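Marked as duplicate of an earlier ticket. Keeping the data here for the record.
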Amino acid sequence: MLEDLRGKAVLVTGASIGIGAAAALEFGRLGANVAVHYNRNKEAAEAVCAAIRKHGSKAVAIGGDFGVPGTGKRVVEEAAKQLGRLDILLNNAGAMIRRVPFLELDSDLYDAAMNLNVKSVIEASQAAVPHMEKQGGGAIINVGSIAGADGGGPGSGHYACAKAYVHNLTRHMARDLASRKIRVNAVAPGVIETAFHAATPPERMEVMKKSVPLGRAGTPQDCVGPILFLASTSMGGYVSGQILHVNGGQFMP
């Protein structure tokens, strides 16, 4: 039922590693042409592209710091130009930046977190809409977080608030863009074994893993199926405005 993804043009932001890379690879394996966005890790992004091309799909690497306003629009325009169209946007780029206690949160960190995790989603999505309308519609998938629903762990309040914004922005976008035949949903991962947690203390990771009913942390691949479901018209064509939690049962809304 994922045959409808063949020939589609997909932009995955933050796709050099982790969830973004796993999703980009699977889109390519299924016959979609993929723009692989990266910030610093060009070599890893090129490796993802090379793997996609082995499946006969087109892949292009596009660099840019989504923490800098204006980058999201530029990357979308470049992706649409290089792929010849744009049907699906996966807004995956984001980061906590660093952990700080609430009383140490300052305006610089707040602005950096909002620019990277929120403003870039708005800019990229706004830029993608005209291209999707040319194809008769499309799908936007935002990557939220369990932190956006439960307030986040120690020192991650700024990130949790940014992801909560993304969750509600997803619902608003879904309503606002429905008349343009663009579906908008979000995937909210829980504890996923990626570079995101490289700086998380091992003892903290153990506590988080033990809080997961399925008894383990997730993997990037665990997030790929839900993303494909939301991207596919045949699978999720009547699904819009939803936050799909992927967390092993750690949080049940």
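See parent ticket for discussion. The longest strand covers residues 182-189.
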